[in-house]
Amino acid sequence: MCAAIALLLPLLSYLRDAKGLHQYPAAGPFGIAALTPLWLMYHNWYGIRWKAIEKAHKQLGAVVRISPNHLSFTDPGAYKDIYGHKADIVKDVFYSNMGGSTPNMADATDRADHARKRKYFAAIFSAKNVGMLEPRVMQCVGKLLDCLKVKATGGQVAETDRFPVREDGSFDVRPWLNMFTYDAIGSMMWSESFGFLERGDDLCAAEAANGETKQVHAMEVFQKGVWFSVFCAHLPPLAYNLLRYVTSKSTWTESASDFSSIARHKANKRLTTLPEQPDIFSQFPTETDAKGRPPLPMWEIVAESSVMLNAGNDTTQTTLTNNILLLSIHPEVQSKLRTILTTSIPASSRPVAPYAALSQTPYLRAVIDETFRILTPQRFGLPRRTVSPSLIAGHTIAPSVTISSPLSELHVDASLFTKPKEWIPERWLADNTDFSETERANLKEFVMPFTTGSRACIGRNLAYMEVSIALAALVMAFEWELGDGGIDECFGQFERITSNATKLIVRARPIEG
Ligand code: HEM
Fold first, then answer.
1. In the predicted model, what is the mean pLDDT of residues 160-187?
2. What does UniProt give as the signal peptide span (predicted)?
């Protein structure tokens, strides 16, 4: 009986077409995506959602139905219509599914609740104030270089180092970049690094709500937990809750909860120790503060700690890995960047240079921005929901429809950029006559790795600071090349929300002096 209802309801809803979605072609064999979210979930399961969406748009056009109640747009104007400040559009149930009864800043769908949460952190993430966190980043970059010097020469950073170098001298740099971003966010958020780099291992304490503590591998529980949460979140709330209930004892669900428990452990420790300098954690009230704000409940302290640990480790690591990949396969760009850096940064500030100097190096920024364009960390079409009839790229969309636009399509749109799929940092440089002013204006307007509008990334300034310091140091300290076998052997990607690198096998040759 239940199965019959589960099959009949989507069919009836499809036939009724109350929101006028029939007019749009649907993805998948026989347009199956119009009937079930399983088409989207299948591709999410295998981490290849972006490929399926790209193929569907290529075959079916600029507006495609990718789930019964979800339209994907690729017209360049659609992105700002959906995500821009003016839109009467909110985050989709996809996020409220994931947030459940303990939403954090990123998955709060209620506007007032989101604004309240965002206000706590606005000051510390401003361009002026992120400098306070810079010494912590520089210290972690120094440790990363120490570790990589050991790996580059075939060694082990400690007995606990679990990432061996291969016989041919190549190694996977991805976990090292990820252990760096964990250590850095630990230090910036709770004034305590995880110490992963020193140990060459991401084992750390996770504390359950009942106080029980266990050891978990941070990278593994994070990736497994996010993957399964995103997979389930495509379902309508009732089905989502049912699936989560049925899988509550699985390692997938346990991993998501272990990740929050890492944040809980750090938060509990931080509550008993006051740092010498303010950190990100200092920004929210943990007791009634001078402004009269009441303390946040513990669930919210854990939720906000968790989102910072999530956002702070994942996209930044992916960005660094993608940059090293592209520099490795473009040795001429790598060497040009190194020359520019070593001639403009005084020897006393090399290789870990302050952001004030690096932010004056347009070519470094061009490399980072061009990598954001070609391999944007979140190319996933971030789901939003119409509140009232909304005009998206000339289409009037009914209320309560899920809409999204993938950055991966926008960033390589041939009507906006020349040689759109080629990685050419020079296109970003002012006065470069090889590229038009119109193209440069398009780069500024349409390349949005941090998205736009009220839900744009709060960590943008921090990310540029961290990535600039780390990437410049990596390029000044080492010469990078891919391991044997080319890109297919040395690099892979798996899309959760972020399109994470699965590995990046390289050889790193330390540069003396
Ligand atoms: C290269 C690095 C980064 C990229 C490309 C990036 C990208 C993004 C994107 C695309 C979103 C929107 C997500 C959505 O709508 O679901 C977002 C949101 C967010 N990011 Fe980042 N991010 C980066 C680094 C960071 C860092 C370092 C932090 C903090 C330590 C951070 C904290 C957040 C938070 C809290 C949100 C939710 C904002 C809100 O809803 O108001 N991000 N980020």
1. 97
2. 1-20
pLDDT digits (tens, 9 = 90+) for 109-154: 999 999 999 998 898 899 988 999 999 999 999 999 999 999 999 9
What atom of ligand 1 comes closest to residue 462's alpha carbon?
Answer: 27
Percent of the chain at pLDDT > 70 equals 98
For ligand 1, atom 21, name the residue with the nearest CA.
Answer: 457
In short, whether 462's Cβ falls inside 6 Å of ligand 1 is: yes
Cβ–ligand 1 distance for 319 under 6 Å, the answer yes
Which residues partner with 494 through β-bridges?
Answer: 500
Closest Cα to atom 31 of ligand 1: 459
Distance between Cα 221 and ligand 1 center (Å): 20
Q: Closest by alpha carbon to 176, among 422, 504, 484, 512?
A: 504
With contact defined as beta carbons under 8 Å apart, do 24 and 62 qualify? no
Report whether pLDDT(219) > 70.
yes
> Across all residues in the chain, what is the average pLDDT?
94
> Does the global pTM surpass 0.90?
yes
- Any atom of ligand 1 within 6 Å of the Cβ of 455: yes
Residues 25, 448: Cα–Cα separation, whole Å:
27
Alpha carbon separation from 443 to 91, 371, 428, 435 (Å, rounded): 26, 12, 7, 11
Is 453 in contact with 114 (CB distance < 8 Å)? no
Specify the ligand 1 atom closest to the Cα of 118: 41
pLDDT in tens, 318-369: 999 999 999 999 999 999 999 999 999 999 999 999 999 999 999 999 999 9
Residue nearest to atom 23 of ligand 1 (CA): 315
Of all protein residues, the one whose alpha carbon is nearest to atom 18 of ligand 1 is 457
What is the pLDDT, as a whole number, of residue 294? 83
Q: Whose CA is nearest to atom 40 of ligand 1?
A: 106
Q: From CA 105, how far away is CA 93, in angstroms rounded?
A: 15
Cα angle, residue 78 at apex, residues 69 and 58 outer, rounded to 5°: 75
Q: Judge if the beta carbon of residue 450 lies within 6 A of ligand 1.
A: yes
Write out the two tokens for 164.
């061996």
